[in-house]
Amino acid sequence: MFFFFFFFWQTFPEALRLLLELLKSCPQDNLAFAVLSDIKRALSASNMELLWEHPWADWIDVFVKDRRAMSVTNNSSNSSLNHLGIASEPSPSSDHLQSPQQQQQQQQQQKEEMSSVQTVLDSIVQKMLFYDLGRKNGVIARNKGLVMEDDSFFLHMVHCLLDFLGTQPILAADKATDFVRNLYTLLRYIDKEIPFDAPVYQHFISVANLMVMQNNSNVRSSMRVCGLLDLRDDLVVQMLYTETPSGCADFLRSFSFELVADQPKFRDSHGTLFILRHFLKASQDRVLQGAIGRVLSTVFLPIDENRRAIAKVVEDPEFMLRLVNNPSSEEDFFAWFYASGPDATLKRTTIEARVEAKVLPLLAVQRRDQDKANLRRSKRQKLVRERQVRQSSVTNKLLGEVKTKGRARLAKLAALHQQHQEQLLAKRQERIRVGEEQWTLLQK
């Protein structure tokens, strides 16, 4: 099927888009998987270069959404028919002819087929992104990012890329510099243009640390020179810029803060201040609060600059002394700090108020930045929708031309077939006539 359309249109992007349009309504996931696998195998360097000059990511996004909507519609229709007591059209494999075990196996098979379609789509995304990031003047480099209508699918694509880097973090020496520089461009675009998304930030921070550990000194130098490691540190701080510790609890538990504890940039960006705030705010989750307290006392406070910065905020020597000794007397610290007496309550509320007074202006700045990012996203999505409307008309025209050419070809083949039949009939009649004449001569 794929090569049929490729033969008609001679360009890979046109063939891909038409196939995705046709596969939207294909109810057979195994067929969709087979066609998409053929498409992935056809992703040569020249075809990917052509494809990057078109909004291929938007095409895949629309394809995924339309197939999902079709699946939901079909399930809803079947449920409605069953609710009304109307049986769906029987087939040789209808559920009423199957045992419960067979029905379960069939449902499992359908889930696996649906999952396989998503898997091959993700691998196509990975291959396309990896190709462009490895180019010196790729589309992402020229556009300073990747403009799409749906940020959620764009972020899913980034997750796919990071999944790939998580399994294969070692970069080829000849492409490492371009790849690192373009990866920085892509992630900086997310940081500036896309509203805060903690899962992507956390995923990238983890992958960046893995790349630092797995690659050689030349690649690590490229990561540092291109700004990728500075960006990682910026995103670590942004992960801490949440209203409540529950918003970044997984990150607080899993991240190795030893990587940034002695970095002046982290301290100047108020990262240490936010960790202190999360420690004070996590009083409802004593396990989390204890974990954050151990990070403060064992990772940050042994560094003089961090200790002075926190002491300047809280302005309470006893608090600092007990916090420094927190690992050996965690329960004693909590018993002292959360005592019910008026003096203890006043001390606690005063320290919390001082920390909040430092943090609230920073959160206000972050909210303004997020509002600006949302406004830019709205404008960007409007432009993308207008472009998609124009492209949709082009696609409809192409589909119409395919149908017209198909009908014309069928008509031509039918005419040739009719002509061939008439020729065969004429030859048959001629042979009969000649035979009759020879038979007549023989009788004479």
Low-confidence segments:
1-9, 77-96
Quaternary structure type: single chain
Number of contiguous helices: 20
Strand content: under 5%
Tell me the radius of gyration. 33 Å
**N- to C-terminal distance:** 63 Å
Order of helices and strands: HHHHHHHHHHHHHHHHHHHH
Global geometry: elongated
Mean pLDDT: 83
The overall strand count is: 0
Q: Into how many domains do the coordinates divide?
A: 3
Query: How is the main sheet built?
Result: none
* Residues in helices, as a percent range: over 70%
What class would the helix/strand composition place it in?
mainly alpha
What does this 3D model show about the protein?
This protein is mostly helical and 444 residues long. It has three domains: 1-73, no CATH class; 118-240; 245-254 and 261-403, no CATH class. Helices cover 78% and strands 0% of the residues. The protein has helices at 2-9, 12-23, 29-41, 45-51, 56-83, 100-133, 139-143, 151-167, 176-193, 198-214, 217-225, 228-240, 249-254, 264-268, 271-281, 286-300, 304-314, 317-324, 330-337, 342-443. Helix 1 packs across helix 2 (12-23), helix 10 runs antiparallel to helix 12 (228-240) and helix 15 (271-281) runs antiparallel to helix 16. The chain is elongated, with a radius of gyration of 33 Å.
